[in-house]
């Protein structure tokens, strides 16, 4: 592999769990990330503001960000209501999000896995009519906060259904960061029997410090698309104990060190992470960012 695609999820996954984050801070983060060379930025969610107040006013966010040519700005849309708002806001792409765990699905989007897949059908159809690409997430691919181990066959089944429904890419979420490299590989191999590996993305949280190791193990299988969040921000409000995503700085540093091009300017990325962390009164968890700032 000589090139990787990074999907920056910091403004969405990174901030959806941050109490007190302001719309201004969210806009500033998207704009700062736009200047780093990242080509895909998940900027927000069109979900219920009662469920996730941090992601409220996504329409105002999309109206105010400085869109950079060549960058795709996307958002989560759990249902038709979310999709309609997202289209009105002029998103470049949307994502539906399902799970391989029944309990997580209930807590996260208030319906069963089967109901969620049915709910996504009209979303897919309306997005297709609007010519907006749809990404599909599968959560809990390496474990569930409520059910523990999840069979890889279940992950593969949900991934295949989303792919057959028309999602151009399936992002495999280790929502609570419990995976280890051999398990991550086995899971990706099982999914790759049903979905082309070129259509898979890895979305690993770093709760147990395994995200980069897991990613490397799967990169060796041929996956080239990776989700990460600047400064290692992140966590899901419906996954107890879930902490940050793999830090984009750590991912960029590793890939570039392996000779894989990311197109991302690490210094600009570290500064973007520093700015949002300062605003949130925290420090970046990214080891690379810490080392870079200490230089
Ligand atoms: P519900 O309560 O079952 O929905 O929620 P409902 O259709 O019965 O509607 C209830 C109320 O919500 C109504 O308002 C609707 O209008 C409103 P009311 O009449 O009571 O005032 N509503 C909406 N408002 C704005 N936008 C919408 C929308 N839909 C309904 N799209 C729902 C179902 C899915 C809406 C809810 O459960 C929800 O918003 N959940 C949020 C889930 C979420 O954002 N989770 C975090 C992201 S997923 C994640 O982090 C994992 C991931 O990173 C991968 C990984 O790590 O594994 C992707
Ligand atoms: Mg996530």
From TrEMBL:
Pfam families hit by this protein = HMGL-like
Hey, which pathway is this one from?
A: Metabolic intermediate metabolism; (S)-3-hydroxy-3-methylglutaryl-CoA degradation; acetoacetate from (S)-3-hydroxy-3-methylglutaryl-CoA: step 1/1
**GO BP term (any one):** L-leucine catabolic process
Q: Which CDD domains match?
A: DRE_TIM_HMGL (cd07938)
State the EC number(s): 4.1.3.4
Where is each Pyruvate carboxyltransferase domain found? 4-270
Q: Which SUPFAM superfamilies match?
A: Aldolase (SSF51569)
Q: Which GO terms describe its molecular function?
A: hydroxymethylglutaryl-CoA lyase activity; metal ion binding
Instruction: Supply the PROSITE patterns for this chain.
Output: PYR_CT
List the keywords (alphabetical).
Answer: Lyase, Metal-binding
Glycoprotein among keywords: no
Which family is this protein grouped under? Belongs to the HMG-CoA lyase family.
- Name of this protein: hydroxymethylglutaryl-CoA lyase
Q: What is the lineage of its organism?
A: Bacteria, Pseudomonadati, Pseudomonadota, Gammaproteobacteria, Alteromonadales
């Amino acid at each position: 592999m000589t090139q990787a695609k990074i999907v920056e999820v910091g403004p969405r996954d990174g901030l959806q769990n941050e109490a007190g984050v302001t719309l201004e801070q969210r806009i500033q983060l998207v704009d700062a990330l736009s200047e780093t060379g990242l080509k895909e930025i998940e900027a927000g969610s069109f979900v219920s503001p009662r469920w996730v107040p941090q992601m409220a006013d996504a329409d105002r966010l999309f109206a105010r960000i400085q869109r950079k040519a060549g960058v795709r700005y996307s958002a989560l849309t759990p249902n038709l209501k979310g999709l309609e708002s997202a289209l009105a806001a002029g998103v470049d792409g949307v994502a539906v999000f399902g799970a391989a765990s029944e309990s997580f699905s209930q807590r996260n989007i208030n319906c069963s896995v089967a109901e969620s897949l049915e709910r996504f059908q009209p979303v897919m159809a309306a997005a297709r009519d609007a010519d907006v690409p749809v990404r599909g997430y599968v959560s809990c691919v390496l474990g569930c906060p409520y059910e523990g181990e999840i069979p890889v066959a279940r992950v593969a089944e949900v991934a295949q259904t989303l792919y057959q429904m028309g999602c151009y890419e399936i992002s495999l979420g280790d929502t609570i960061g419990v995976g280890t490299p051999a398990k991550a590989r086995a899971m990706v191999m099982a999914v790759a029997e049903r979905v082309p590996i070129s259509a898979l993305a890895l979305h690993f949280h770093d709760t147990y410090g395994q995200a980069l190791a897991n990613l490397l193990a799967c990169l060796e299988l041929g996956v080239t698309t990776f989700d990460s969040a600047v400064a290692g921000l992140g966590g899901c409000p419906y996954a107890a104990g879930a902490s940050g995503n793999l830090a984009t700085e750590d991912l960029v540093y590793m890939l570039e060190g392996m000779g894989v091009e990311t197109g991302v300017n690490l210094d600009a990325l570290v500064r973007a992470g520093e700015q949002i962390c300062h605003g949130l009164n925290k420090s970046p968890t990214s080891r690379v960012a810490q080392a870079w700032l200490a230089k």
